[in-house]
# Entry
Amino acid sequence: MIAEEKVMTISKAAGPAGTHWRRVWRHVRKAPLSAWIGIVIVLAYLVVALFAPWIAPHGETEVVGGQYDPWSDEFLLGTDQLGRDMLSRLIFGARNTISVALMTTSIAFVLGTGLGLLAATVGGWVDQLFSRLVDVIMAIPQLIFALLLLSIFGTSVVNLVLIIAVLDSTRLFRVSRSVALNITVLDFVEAARLQGEGTIWIMVREILPNILAPIIAEFGMRFCFVFLTIAALSFLGLGIQPPTADWGSMVRENATLINYGDITPLLPAGAIALLTIGVNFVVDWFLHITSGLKE
Amino acid sequence: MRKPAFDEAGPLLEVRDLRVEGQSDDSWHEIVKGVSFDLKRGEVLGLIGESGAGKSTIGLASIGYVRPGCRIKSGQVRYKGIDLVSAPERHKRALWGAELAYVAQSAAAAFNPAHRLIEQCQEPAIIHGERSEKKLRDKIVGLFRKLSLPEPEEIGERYPHQLSGGQLQRVMTVMAMSCHPGLLIFDEPTTALDVTTQIEVLATIKQIVDEFGVAAIYITHDLAVVSQVADRIIVLRYGEIVEEASTRKMLAAPEAAYTKTLWAVRKLDKQENLAAKPILQLRDIDAGYGRSLKVLDQINLDVPRGRTVAVVGESGSGKSTLARTIMGLQPAFAGTIEFDGVALPFAFKQRSVPLHRRIQMIYQSPDTALNPRRRVRDILCRPLHRHLHLSAEARRQRVAELMSMVELNTRLLERLPSELSGGEKQRVCIARALAVEPELIICDEVTSALDQIVAEGVLKLLLRLQQQIGITYIFITHDLATVRAISDWIVVMHRGRIVEQGPKSQILTPPRHPYTELLFSSMPEMDPAWLPRVLQKRQTGGAAQGASVEMSI
# Structure
């Protein structure tokens, strides 16, 4: 009897979860063309990044030809200023640039959302402290601040990731704090407090699930911006250091070719632009779905 | 704009087999399923029903409007012979505001906060071709005066936030009347108002209808209210007409079984019983916001164990602050609170965890009181785990037990709150409060967001639980029927003070304190003669009595 009941509860528990995935699938199937383009772009980049060593015809830092060789059968996109294969470096660049950007955004996400939630939930002086700190950081232009900090702490990938993560977490802090503030005033949060729940529980279990949608959308947007910041820093020579392939520095290294009417240096820039568009399409679609779900 | 050719002979409004569909999840569902009725000139038709019965949809469709996401599937709506369903948009626009006007539920939300009221009242007339501003202004001021708004000459220069809710609702009626329409739709115009304010608005509506001879459709879920203004009542359920009759006949001899159940709700009456030791004692409690703003002033209250204390009063009287003070969310400034013979710390944080368990609260709106992202099972299991430290198996059993206590099927345990109805959600809230076996539950307007039949079910449930496990309730409400249904002891609050308190039998029967009298006499009764009677009584003894109320409080 009891066993039978258990089986029933399990099958019931499976029901809503099943419908959840069905709902997700329905959204994916119904996605507009722009979202499909975005999904395809993002997936393609991920595949390239994950399988770079197998896809790339040559090694990342391998000198295989002369300086600035033109496009040919052997070097599909020519070679760079040191004679390395352009296509291979583009492919490895995807791996480096995306992984650094993803790491940075994740740290910024955890830091910003965590503190934003904390500020909204606890309020009072904690809120004041973090909010004013964020105001101060945001008062300084981000790129200049990043340059300044990088020249103080030195240009390593770890420093780069940490510095941009901290600077970018200010944006996530503001978004998560303002969305969370709307939730903290609702009765169920007070009800949880009246049940004697602690701050962490209220933050993570009561508030976070309700603000996840806008926060994830912001995550996508931030990913693009981090990408561009890293590219910009690399272009300025303070980002990812040679010989590691990175799209931003690749633009800079091959910039001279532009003078001879060669579009090769624009390819890494194009790679950045395309991924930004793809991620934005996906984020837009996600925002569209969540705004519809809220009703 | 030229008015289309009207047929002045037939009925004012003819609705024939109206079917309206709404879109959800990519498919169309019928919300209104073949409704037909007529409306004569100068007649007021009441549409009543629970939420989701299609009242508002029918009201809007009778002026040819459908909300986004809805469409009229078939049927006819003829206003003076013109079919509004097939009429092109520009014909309808010529009629809206001029011949057909709509008064929305929340006047505060319906006015544009950035414009002066007079500009907003003039707008419909200007759109429909009134050119003389002087003439129009005089007309609006005349209407302000007629509806006895204070300072009719100047009130139009104010902004919406400078008026009270009842005044705004009357200004909105002026706006609707600015073109002398033939048909007015009132969509729950008093639902958001206090009873003492509601009576003004009801009087206004009655006056407008009598004086201008306009026809009106009055939408509400409150029987007592509709019986004051309507000549005829249509009871709706699931988008269909259940019963249609004149108000008197409908009140005296309802025919359909569903209508009868609607009527029965208001007859719940609990046997008063006060013999019990107090579980909670409040002595000289002052409380409020910040350092200086005092909301509660010298509150003295004994709550007998296993009984129900009803706290009544208008909004702003401090009844919710009283609840929050007892809970410790709004710490008192001064006084003492004793719970079960032990002094209770003012601030929630200073109270011990077992104390948290013993006092629970149920909220007015079950929609915001449940976390939309957590399943019912998680919502109920958590307090069991935290306060009672039950094992997983014991929790599972207790949750099932709780669900049967609040008369819910255990099937609902895996649902999210959004997949439950309003009544089911409120029952889950009750189950959550019951989960930790509390001794005192504070119920803050727990039935006011629910439909009458659902509310009755919830009240009955609360009463049954009190009999079974002897819980004490503090019941905050503004509804007389609820007070009668549930209370043993009644506390009347006004402006942060207790005006009068006593056993139910004593408070409900005159003589009473003037404020109690004002409050209780403002609560509509299901009698068409009630409104004129009350208004007349207030006019004769009214001015002096009103003043004495102000003085004595």
The longest helix of chain A spans residues 86-122. The mean pLDDT of chain A is 82. Residues 90 and 266 of chain A are 11 Å apart (CA to CA). DSSP finds eleven helices and no strands in chain A.
